[in-house]
Design goal:
By secondary structure, the chain is α/β, with parallel strands linked by helices. It has two domains: 31 residues; 312 residues, Metal-dependent hydrolases (TIM Barrel, Alpha-Beta Barrel), CATH 3.20.20.140. It is built from 14 helices and ten strands. Helix 10 links the parallel strand 6 and strand 7.
Length: 374
C-alpha cells in the first residue's frame, strides 16, 4: 500500500522537474520576443536587382566638405581618394579666413592642386558689437577672395550659439551683418549657409518623433523653442536675408531642411530666385520619395548642387546609387539618420551633369571647367 501511495508523488515530482528544465532551456515566448528598437534591424529578404556604384558616372564637384587641417594635410592622399570616386573638385568650406586661409592656400599651391581644391572663407562674429564691424568683416572677405577664396561659408552657430557682448543670440538676419551679404554679391561669390537643423530636433522626443533614435544617440542635438528659438523663427530669419539681398547668390545647405517637404521647398525656390540648394546629408529623404524627388529635380535642375558634408569616401557610394540607379529598397549607411530603405532616382544624364558639376561651375567663380564634359 505504501508503494502505491508514494509512486504517484514521485511521478508528479519528476514531471515538475522536467517542466522546470524545459522552461530553463526554452524561455517564455514573450521574453524571447523582447527587443528594443535599436537592435531590430533585419536584412531584407526582398530579391531585386542590386547595382552598387562606387564611382560617379560623371566627374562631380562636392560643394560641401570640411577639411580642418588642410594647411598641413597630405593632399596627394586626398586627391587619390577623389580620383577613385571621380570627384573633379572638392570645396573645403572651413577656410577660416585671414592667415589661416593663406596657410591653406599655400599648401594647396605647394602640392599643385589649385584646379582640384576650392576653399571658402568664414566670418568671425566675435567683434560684432564694435563700431564698423560689418564693413571690416566685408573688407576681410574681399582680401580672402584676393588670396584665393571662392565663396563664404556660414555655420549654423549663427542663430544657434553665437552671442553678442550682452549675451543675446545673434540673429541670422541681424542688420549688422548686411555689409557681409552685400559684399559677397558685389564680389560675385556665393554664400553657402547652414541655418538651424532638422525640425524634428525641436519636437518632443517621443514615439512620434522620426529622429527619436538620433536624439537618443546624440542627445546634445535636442533643441526647444527657448534653446535658442523656435525652428520656424530661425528659418524665417534666413529667408529674410535671402529676400533682402537679391543680388547675392545663396546656397542653402541641406536643402534648407525641407527635403522632406518638397512642395514647400518648391514654393520657396519660386519666391527666392537667388537661392540654390545642395543635397548634403539629406540623400535619405530623397531616396524614400523617388517620384516626387524626380519631379523636383526636373523643375529645379538648374539650382541644385551636389554636396556631401562629412568627408567619408565610402559614403559617397550611397549618393551615387540613389542618384544614378533604379535600384529598389536599399539601406542608408546610418540607421540613426534613416531607419527606412531607399529607392534610386535614375536621373537623366543632363540633370545629373547639372547636379554634379554644371550648376557649381555656373555660380562658383574660378573653378577649372576643363575637367568636366560640356
Amino acid at each position: 500500500m505504501l508503494v502505491k501511495r508514494i509512486f504517484p508523488i514521485v511521478l508528479l515530482m519528476s514531471l515538475f522537474s522536467l517542466v522546470a528544465c524545459a522552461q530553463q532551456s526554452n524561455p517564455p515566448v514573450e521574453e524571447s520576443l523582447s527587443m528594443d528598437f535599436e537592435t531590430y534591424n533585419p536584412p531584407s529578404t526582398l530579391v531585386v536587382p542590386e547595382n552598387p556604384v562606387t564611382r560617379g558616372k560623371f566627374p562631380f564637384i562636392d560643394v560641401h566638405s570640411h577639411h580642418y587641417r588642410m594647411a598641413s594635410q597630405d593632399l596627394d592622399k586626398l586627391i587619390s581618394e577623389m580620383d577613385e570616386l571621380n570627384m573633379g573638385v572638392i570645396v573645403n568650406l572651413s577656410g577660416r579666413g585671414g592667415q589661416a586661409l593663406e596657410e591653406i592656400m599655400a599648401n594647396v599651391k605647394k602640392y599643385g592642386y589649385e584646379n582640384r581644391i576650392a576653399v571658402f572663407t568664414n566670418v568671425n562674429f566675435d567683434g560684432i558689437d564694435e563700431p564698423g564691424w560689418g564693413e571690416q568683416a566685408a573688407s576681410q572677405i574681399a582680401t580672402d577672395v584676393a588670396n584665393g577664396a571662392k565663396g563664404l561659408k556660414i555655420y549654423k552657430s549663427l542663430g544657434l550659439s553665437v552671442k553678442d557682448k550682452k549675451g543675446n543670440f545673434i540673429a541670422i538676419d541681424d542688420p549688422r551683418i548686411d555689409p557681409v551679404w552685400a559684399k559677397c554679391g558685389e564680389l560675385g561669390i556665393p554664400v553657402l549657409i547652414h541655418s538651424a537643423d532638422p525640425a524634428q530636433f525641436w519636437q518632443d522626443h517621443d514615439a512620434n518623433n522620426e529622429r527619436w533614435l538620433e536624439l537618443k544617440t546624440h542627445p546634445r542635438r535636442k533643441r526647444s523653442d527657448t534653446d535658442p528659438a523656435p525652428w520656424a523663427t530661425l528659418i524665417e530669419q534666413q529667408h529674410r536675408v535671402f529676400r533682402k539681398h537679391p543680388n547675392t547668390t545663396f546656397i542653402n545647405a541641406h536643402m534648407g531642411w525641407f527635403a522632406n517637404d518638397l512642395n514647400k521647398l518648391a514654393q520657396l525656390m519660386d519666391e527666392m530666385p537667388n537661392m540654390y540648394v545642395e543635397i548634403g546629408a539629406i540623400i535619405a529623404e530623397l531616396g524614400r520619395q523617388p517620384r516626387a524627388a524626380n519631379r523636383f529635380f526636373e523643375k529645379y535642375q538648374d539650382r541644385v548642387l551636389f554636396g556631401k558634408d562629412s568627408y567619408n569616401p565610402g559614403e559617397y557610394h550611397t549618393y551615387f546609387r540613389v542618384l544614378e540607379t533604379a535600384d529598389e529598397y536599399f539601406p542608408y549607411y546610418k540607421k540613426y539618420h534613416a531607419f527606412w530603405s531607399m529607392y534610386g532616382l535614375e536621373l537623366p544624364d543632363e540633370i545629373l551633369k547639372k547636379l554634379y558639376y554644371k550648376n557649381a561651375l555656373k555660380i562658383i567663380p574660378g573653378l577649372d571647367a576643363s575637367r568636366f564634359p560640356k
